[in-house]
């Protein structure tokens, strides 16, 4: 009798969602930077309309004791599937502005969120609010691209970046007078984000690797944000009670997307959140 064969294979690791998104993003940026070289993208960024002050708008809301609502415009997401259809960014931007939102966030990632630069351009043109480009920033080229399409602020996801990358992207954003929202999901990421210059610390209640959401993430982390920084509670916020919960933890600024995008009356739903305190 032959000895039984034991086949040892490498442990199978399934790539998490963030890793898959980033792999697509590096590919996308590589291709786009061939079509439009960095120097040309920088020229377009520096020729764009003056940026609106995203960070000051949120600081002002906090100083006034208001909710600082960053209202998000997105058609779809990996966790929610198709969220809103038909989807009209300009109308949504106007609805949010009339509800008293402080800023907008617009998804521009196509493969995972069905976003587009045109959504951001249309939303920004329809209101006077500062606009965050919600995408996965990994390369300076994208920061110039963000400014060229009109964005006033970029998102830096600490889980997706080395310290050196984050600093480089922040420096470029600052040179373009753009704001930076540094996003964290745990204490270690927060400590890294606090090494950046930006005052805006986004605490994502959603784990981008597993897509699980828990408001406890903000409750745990917001108390550790130093007084000279502004915590922004992100993801999974649905009701005025949730807003009060985030405010009680120290986060009066919130980033809300899906729960608003699923409402027939976006203005009414957003103003309920704005008036929760
Ligand atoms: O739709 P929600 O659960 O209200 O979440 C909004 C926003 O926080 C979420 O879109 C988000 C936060 N960080 C991100 C990073 C990438 C993509 C999306 C996000």
Automatic annotation (TrEMBL):
One of its GO terms (molecular function) is phosphoribosylanthranilate isomerase activity. GO terms for biological process: L-tryptophan biosynthetic process. This is Indole-3-glycerol phosphate synthase. It catalyses: 1-(2-carboxyphenylamino)-1-deoxy-D-ribulose 5-phosphate + H(+) = (1S,2R)-1-C-(indol-3-yl)glycerol 3-phosphate + CO2 + H2O. Gene3D superfamilies: Aldolase class I (3.20.20.70). InterPro entries: Aldolase_TIM (IPR013785), Indole-3-glycerol_P_synth (IPR045186), Indole-3-glycerol_P_synth_dom (IPR013798), Indole-3-GlycerolPSynthase_CS (IPR001468), RibuloseP-bd_barrel (IPR011060). Keywords: Amino-acid biosynthesis, Aromatic amino acid biosynthesis, Decarboxylase, Lyase, Tryptophan biosynthesis. It is an enzyme of class 4 (lyase). Residues 18-273 form the Indole-3-glycerol phosphate synthase domain. Pathway: Amino-acid biosynthesis; L-tryptophan biosynthesis; L-tryptophan from chorismate: step 4/5. It comes from Belnapia rosea. It comes from the Bacteria. It holds the Pfam family IGPS. Its EC number is 4.1.1.48. The keyword Amino-acid biosynthesis applies.
């Amino acid at each position: 009798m032959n000895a039984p064969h034991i086949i040892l294979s490498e442990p199978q690791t399934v790539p998490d969602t963030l890793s898959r998104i980033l792999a697509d993003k590096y590919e996308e940026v590589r291709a786009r930077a061939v079509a439009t070289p960095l120097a040309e993208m920088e020229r377009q960024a520096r020729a764009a309309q003056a940026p609106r002050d995203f960070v000051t708008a949120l600081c002002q809301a906090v100083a006034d004791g208001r909710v600082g609502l960053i209202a998000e415009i997105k058609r779809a997401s990996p966790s929610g599937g198709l969220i809103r259809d038909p989807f009209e960014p300009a109308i949504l931007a106007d609805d949010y502005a009339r509800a008293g939102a402080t800023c907008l966030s617009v998804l521009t990632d196509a493969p995972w969120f069905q976003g587009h630069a045109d959504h951001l351009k249309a939303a920004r043109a329809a209101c006077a609010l500062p606009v965050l480009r919600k995408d996965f920033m990994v390369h300076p080229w994208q920061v110039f691209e963000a400014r060229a399409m009109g964005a006033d602020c970029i998102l830096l996801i600490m889980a997706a970046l080395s310290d050196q990358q984050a600093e480089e992207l922040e420096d470029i954003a600052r040179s373009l007078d753009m704001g930076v929202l540094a996003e964290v999901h745990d204490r270690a990421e927060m400590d890294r984000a606090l090494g950046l210059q930006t005052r805006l610390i986004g605490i994502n209640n959603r784990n981008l690797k597993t897509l699980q959401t828990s408001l406890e993430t903000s409750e745990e982390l917001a108390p550790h944000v130093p007084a000279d920084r502004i915590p922004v509670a992100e993801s999974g916020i649905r009701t005025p009670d949730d807003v009060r919960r985030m405010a009680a933890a120290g986060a009066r600024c919130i980033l809300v997307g899906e729960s608003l995008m699923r409402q027939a009356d976006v203005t009414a739903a957003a103003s309920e959140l704005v008036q929760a305190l």
